[in-house]
Structures are given as C-alpha cells and as structure tokens.
Amino acid sequence: MADASVGTGRGAGGGRVAVVTGASSGIGAATVRALAAAGFRTVAAARRVERCEELAAEVGGRAVQLDVTDEDSVAALAEAVPDAAVVVHSAGGALGTDRVADLDPDGWRRMYETNVLGVARVHRALLPAMRRSGDGHVVVLGSIAGFEVYPGGGGYTAVKHGVHALCRTLRLELLGEPVRVTEIAPGMVETEFSLVRLGGDAQAAAKVYEGLTPLSAADVADVIAFAVTRPPHVDIDHLVVRPVAQADAAHVHRR
Ligand code: 8X3
C-alpha cells in the first residue's frame, strides 16, 4: 500500500473530497488507499461496485457505481457527490494489439468511449462541484502512449494522444479558475491492464512484465497523492513515471 504521508505530511488532504473513477482495481484502487491515507474523504467509483464497497469499508470512504460511458450513471455520480474537489480519472485502458491493417473498429471505438469521452463526461458533470470547492483538481491517468507510438499500439496510442490533447485543452479552458489539471503518464505498470488488453490471456499478460520490475499501482498512486497535496498555486502539469528498465514504449531492458 502506498504511504502517501511520505513527503506530504499525513492529513495533507485536509478532508477534501476526492472522487476516483476506475477504483475497483489497479491504479484506481491504489489511489483511493493513498488519498485516504493522505487525509482525503474518498469516493471510489466503478462499474464493479461490490469491489468499491469493500475498498470503501477498508479506508472509511464511500462507494458509488459508475459507468463512464453512460450519461445517466455519470449524472447520478454528480448528484451523489456535490462536494467533489479532486477528481482522479483512472477509468480506461487498452483493448488489443492490432496493427492498423488489422483494424478492429469496435475495440478502438470502445477505447475512445472510455478513455476520452469518459474523462470528458465525468469532467463536465463534476466541474461545478470542483469550482464550488474553491480549489478543484482534475487528475487524468494518461500514459506514455499519449506521446509515444509503437507497432501494434495504434488504437491505444491514438486514444491516449487524445487524452493528452484533452488535458492540454482543459489547462487552457480552465486558466484563471481555481481548478488544477494534472496528467499522469505512466509507463509499464503491472495491473489488470495487460490481461484486459490481451483478452484475458494470463500467460501472454505475464510475458509483458517478464525479466523486469514494472511499476506497481501503489507507485503511481504515490505520485498522484504527491500531485494533489501540493499548495493550491502549484500545478504538477504533466508527470511521466516509468520503471527504470523502460526507456520508452518500445525499449525495455529484460534480465
Ligand atoms: C501503458 C504504457 O508502457 O505499458 O499505458 O505501453 S505501456
């Protein structure tokens, strides 16, 4: 579990309300734990609400069912959390490793729906609450795929480039308002990410991380906790974090 008190001072969250999407597993779940440890009141949101409920019981926060591709579900989240100050957009992920010539439009469309439109929809719904808080903070889980490309990554990198563009746009559109925008761009993180991307093939997913030490979800959550516990005038704008063994998306060192 991430110890978000390191370098931030326990209680740095000051009881502000932090909503985390995609909180049922991986980076989202680790972020809920890290932010709770840092003194935020957390709201764990995801489709698999039972997992969020378990997590909420563990950290003393709340759970809300959320499908970021569904307008009604997002509207219900906004109604349930009128005091959201921090919103961490962790829902997303990759589907497939098709080359462009083998395009599966359905998978690409689903990635765009979740990663890009999902962030935009949740942002639109929760922005009034963040404004009201007087110190709002949007944190988006991007990826190194938001500025790098590799063969077989076309669908995912196009979508994460879209997420990067969305974050830059928000930075401009919110200029002059008390709402920070932080894009966290991790490299290899061992979560359900590769299992989902590779259609549930556990052996292939394990191979992705073979011979190197990837980041853990807690490593990324630590960085998020750092970003949201800076003083209100400090915006950690775009933060890239990778394992030491990964120089870029296509260059990794395996033992
Ligand atoms: C995923 C980054 O390095 O696993 O967002 O392709 S990487």
TrEMBL record:
KW Chloroplast (keyword) present: no
Keyword terms, alphabetized: Oxidoreductase
InterPro entries: NAD(P)-bd_dom_sf, SDR_fam
Highest taxon, organism lineage: Bacteria
Gene3D superfamilies named in the record: NAD(P)-binding Rossmann-like Domain (3.40.50.720)
Pfam families listed in its UniProt record: adh_short
Keyword Oxidoreductase: yes
Similarity remark: Belongs to the short-chain dehydrogenases/reductases (SDR) family.
Protein name as it appears in the record: SDR family NAD(P)-dependent oxidoreductase
Source organism per UniProt: Kineococcus glutinatus
Lineage summary: Bacteria, Bacillati, Actinomycetota, Actinomycetes, Kineosporiales
